[in-house]
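Task 17 of the worksheet. Students: predict the tertiary structure of the chain below and write it out as C-alpha cells. Keep your answer in the requested format; marks are given for formatting as well as content.
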Amino acid sequence: VTYLGTFGGSFSGAYALNEDTIVGYAATADERVHAFAFENSQMVDLGTLGGDESIAIDISRSGEILGVSKANYASGDPGYPFWVGFVYRDGVVTEIRPSDGRDVFPAAINDHGQVVGVLAETDDLDDYPFLWQEATGIRNLNDLIDPAIGCRLVTADDINASGQVVGLAVCDDGKYPWDDSFVGVLLTPES
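Model answer:
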C-alpha cells in the first residue's frame, strides 16, 4: 500500500490512473479539496478555476487529466459558485463551460481528448448528457441519436478510444418491456 498524502488536510481520494500517474483529490489545511496528479512519488496540486474546490476524475493513457472545479461566477451573479469541467494537459487548463451557466459534471476522457458527462440544472428537468471536444465544444448527446428510437439519454458515463459511449437512458414510447425504467445503453458513432 502506498500512501499518496494530502495538501495538509486529513483526507484524500484517488479516482483514476494510467501507467504513470494517479489522479484524485486531497484536502488542504482548511479541509477544502483540490485536484491532484501523483507522479514520481510526488503529489501536484492542480489548483482550482477560481473557486475553493476541485477534483481530478479521470486520466487518459496519453496523460490528459479530466476534472471539475468550483468557479465563482455564473449567470451574471459573481458570488454564486458552480461547477466547471476542465482538461489539464501539459500544464495548460482548458475549461469545459457551457454558455448557459449550467453545472458541468464530466465523467470520462478518452485518448482523443473527447469528454463525456452531464450538464445539470438545479431543477433536474433540463439535465442532459454531453460529448465535449475542444474543436466542437459541448454537444447534447440526445441531439446525436435518432428520436425514433424512443429513448432519452440521462447519463454519459464512459467513452472509449473508438468514441463509443456507455450510460443510462429512459425509454417511454411503449416499444420496450423496460419502458419508464433506467436501462444501460451503448452508443456507437456512425462511420
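Marker's comment: The chain has a mean pLDDT of 88. The first strand starts at residue 8 and ends at 17.
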